[in-house]
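Open question from group meeting: does this chain pack into something compact, or does most of it stay loose? Before anyone orders reagents, we agreed to write out a predicted structure and look at it together. Recording both the input and the output here so the notebook holds the full record.
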Amino acid sequence: MSYFDNNATTPVHPSVIEALSRCCKEDWRNPSSPYRLASRTKAKLSYAREQWSELLKVNPADVIFSSGATESNNWILASYAQNSPADATILISTSEHSSVSEPANFWFKNRVEEIPNQTDGIVCIDSLIRRLEESRRPALVCMIAASNESGIVQPWEKVAKLCQERNVPFHCDTTQWVGKLPLSDLHHCSSFTASAHKFGGPRGVGWLVDQNSTRLQFGGGQEGGRRAGTENFPSIQAMAIAWEYCLSKSDDLEARSIWRDQMEMDLLDRIPGTKVIGGGNRRLWNTSFLLMPEFQNLDWVTGLEKIGFEVSTGSACSVFSDGSSPTARTYSLNPMEVKRLVRVSSYLDHTHEDWRELGDAFVQCYEKLLSNSKDSRVISL
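Structure tokens returned:
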């Protein structure tokens, strides 16, 4: 089976499984306990934090290990709500993942303003600047770095610097960015998040970098007193191993977008009426969001799986939501079009040949769906 749903989760690399297993055997003790072997685990935990802080160009105290980006995004919104005036407003982009938009509207009910997108799906910088220049500035600005659906990359670096110049906190959901694109400018954000399972690590671990030292979870002194609970060191160590593997594959990643582009051009030619959402923008090199001309996306997913390819209908989190996706709203897709969206997302070990075979599988699936639909229209007398 060829797996093309990596924006939902990536397979855990074998070296990560080995590291996780080894740590569960050797470094399972509570880092807060007083005896020698527990102190060794605590020292390794501190070293892991220092490694991430050096990589991200932030202070070690600003790196908080969490269960992943959803917890971290919720954490930031709750923290600002509790530490801001009762009438404070926040700005979020219209492309946010639900782990930002939903807690934003929960904690800042009727006080959330959206930064509008242009027709191409890129946030309108001029609108943001006008809002930041008003006398009453927002308590927080949130913007996703890259869409988990379309892969569209937002100008978050520019927004981070605009907010920094005006002393407005800026939170960036970098879940899809980390493991696919360089980390060099992330330190310009007031806070940003990552999940290990998006770059070959285990589920249930990630980090929040928060340079404003907010505190949410009480009941213990772990993570500098900001996140109570025994640290999951084996998974934290495994996350570091996953990152090392990413670095070993990072030389030509953006160049791989050519493979995706060639597959899309092939589909546009061989399946008339196919559309590529966000095709004219800079996108994550691994992501293609397709609006198919016929048949519901679940038919495509089922048909492709029978051929040997796993793809998605979009964000895995949207399966549990009644609302349409942020990308669908941005592009004003009607309900029938939303049901024809198919997302494809590769990762590090995919090859050019894998993309070519996926394109052929789409065509094969289309021909099969056409054939089945014609057969179903035959009425026997």
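Observations to bring back to the group:
The two ends are 42 Å apart (CA to CA).
The chain is about 40% helix and 10% strand.
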